[in-house]
Design a protein that fits this description.
about 190 residues; Ribosomal Protein L25, Chain P; Large ribosomal subunit protein bL25; Ribosomal_bL25/Gln-tRNA_synth; structural constituent of ribosome; Rbsml_bL25/Gln-tRNA_synth_N; alpha+beta; 5S rRNA binding
Length: about 190
């Protein structure tokens, strides 16, 4: 799993007015929880954008006033009009405790159903998994090699060692459907 280093500075005052002042200075108020105590701090808005706006899952190596810890982003709040990051919650990782995060799905191979004119419809792009931090993956690979038209892949079809997928087993990840052109060709063939 990839990691990204972010440095932050402790916040002395916690409140609406102080948070607004931090945002005006180009900082984002944040909190780190999951350890013995909560830590309120601030991080650079420019530095955090590279972590927030990526499709990859990353562990964050936080350096808060000289104290280093590993965490993940648990929650983010954005301004409804400007899209500015208002607040970030970090969850401190413990090597002995499993953590639940969403991991992107990466499709591998070429489907014979798509080659024959079918349409690939991907309904889930990420899966929620629960595992120890050392067992987390960058992506979950799903092979579409043997998928014909009308077939699908469900969550229950995915098996990964040391991970528990917490999505509903009946959820459809992807399916190969009949394209409009293929349906018209079949109807014309039946009509003749």
């Amino acid at each position: 799993m990839k990691s990204f280093a972010i440095s932050g500075s402790l916040r002395e005052n916690v409140g609406k007015r102080d948070a607004k002042e931090l945002r005006y200075q180009g900082l984002v108020p944040a909190v780190l929880y999951g350890g013995a105590t909560q830590t309120h701090f601030s991080v650079s808005a420019a530095e955090i954008k590279t972590v927030i706006f990526t499709h990859e899952v990353q562990f964050i190596d936080l350096d808060i006033a000289g104290t280093k810890t590993q965490a993940i982003i648990k929650d983010m709040q954005f301004h409804p009009l400007t899209g500015e990051t208002l607040h970030i919650d970090f969850l401190q990782l413990d090597e002995a405790k499993p953590v639940t995060i969403e991991i992107p799905i990466r499709l591998t191979g070429t489907s014979p159903g798509v080659k024959m004119g079918g349409k690939l419809v991907q309904k889930l792009r990420k899966l929620r998994i629960k595992a120890l931090p050392k067992d987390h993956l960058d992506t979950i690979e799903v092979s579409i090699e043997g998928l014909e038209v009308g077939k699908s892949v469900r969550v229950r079809d995915i098996q990964v060692e040391n991970l528990t997928i917490t999505n509903t087993p009946e959820d459809t990840i992807l399916s190969i459907t009949t394209s409009r052109a293929l349906r018209q060709a079949e109807q014309e063939a039946r009509g003749k």
